[in-house]
Amino acid sequence: MLYPDTVESEVLVHKPWFVAVMFAAIFALFLTFDLSGTSMGELMRPVIGEPLESGIYGRFAIAFVIAVLFCLNVVLIGFASLRVQITIVWLELLLLFLAFFKTFNLSLPFMAEKLPFLVTQGLFTTIYVSAISIVIASAIAILGAVAKLSTNGFAYAIASFYTSFFRGLPLLMQVYLIYLGLPQLGFIIDAVPAGILALSLCYGAYMTEIFRSGIQSIDRGQWEASRSIGFGFGITMRKIILPQALPVIIPPTGNQFISMLKDSSLVSVIGVWELMFLARTLGQKSFQHMEMLISAAMLYWGVSICLELIQSRIERHYARSKVR
C-alpha cells in the first residue's frame, strides 16, 4: 500500500457524484440482462408478479434493486476501518463465488471422496516440482544476471542468448522439446525431471532479468566504495549489493513462484501425475469434470494464498529499514 495520507479528505464512496455515477453504471449494466428467470426474479415476485411475464418492468425493477443494494453496500462499507473493509469485501466476493459454483449442481460427496487423493498425490507433486524448479531457476538467474552485467563478451553473449531463446518460446513447447527431443540425442529423461528442467530453464530466463534489474537498482557508488576498500567481487556481491537488492528482487520473484505453481500444470501433457492431470483424469471416468476442476482450482488458490502471505512477510522483513 501507499504511505498513509496525512491530509484529511472526504471518502470517495461518500461523495454524491460518485454514488450517482456508480448507481447509473450498475443500473445500466444489469438492465441489459434479463434476470427475471433467476433466483433474483423469484425474490422480486411480490413486486413484479410472475417473473417470466414481467417483461421490461421486471428487468427495470430488478436492475433498480440491485443498483440500490450495491450502492448502499459500498457506502456502508466506506464507514468501516481499512482492515474491516478488506475483510467484508473478501467475504462478500467469496459468497458470490460460492453462489456461482452452486449453480453447477456439484456432487459434494464425489468431491469429498476424491479430495484426499488430489492432495496427497496431485498437490504434493505440484509443490514438489515447483519448489525444486524455483531453486534451480534462482541459481540460474543469479549466474545469468552476473553474466549480463559483466564486461566479459563471452559471458554476456551466452546469457543474452539464453534469456532471448527461453523467453521467446512458449513453455509448453519447451516441455515437448526437452521430453521428446533429448531422447533423439541419446539422453533419456523421465517425465518429472523433464518438467523440472523445462520450468527451471524457462523461469530462470525471466528471473535473470529480475535479478539484473534488482542489482542495477543499487547505486554505483556502493560498488565503487566496496572495491576501494579492497573487497573482492564475491564479497561485494554477497555482503553489499545483494542484501540491498533483495527488497527489489523479492516481490517479482514471489510472483514468478506463484506463476510457476500454476504453469506446472503444463507438465501434465507428458504424464506427470500433478494436480491438473489427476483432476482431468478423475473427472473423465464419471463425466464429473466440474467437480474435479473446481476442486483443483480451490487447491491452487489455497496454495497461492499461502505463498502470498509468505511473500508479504518476507517483504515486510526486508522493508524494516524504510519504516519511519
UniProtKB/TrEMBL annotation:
Primary location recorded for the protein, binned into one broad class: membrane
Listed InterPro entries: AA_ABC_transptr_permease_3TM, ArtM/GltK/GlnP/TcyL/YhdX-like, MetI-like, MetI-like_sf
Keyword Protein biosynthesis in record: no
Record key words, sorted: Amino-acid transport, Cell membrane, Membrane, Transmembrane, Transmembrane helix, Transport
Record's bilayer topology term: Multi-pass membrane protein
Subcellular localization(s) per the UniProt record: Cell inner membrane; Cell membrane
Secretion signal, residue range per the UniProt entry: none
Residue spans crossing the bilayer: 17-36, 56-79, 86-104, 124-147, 154-179, 185-206, 289-310
Alphabetized PANTHER family for the sequence: L-CYSTINE TRANSPORT SYSTEM PERMEASE PROTEIN TCYL, MEMBRANE COMPONENT OF AMINO ACID ABC TRANSPORTER
Family: Belongs to the binding-protein-dependent transport system permease family. HisMQ subfamily.
Name of the protein this chain belongs to: Amino acid ABC transporter permease
Organism name: Shinella lacus
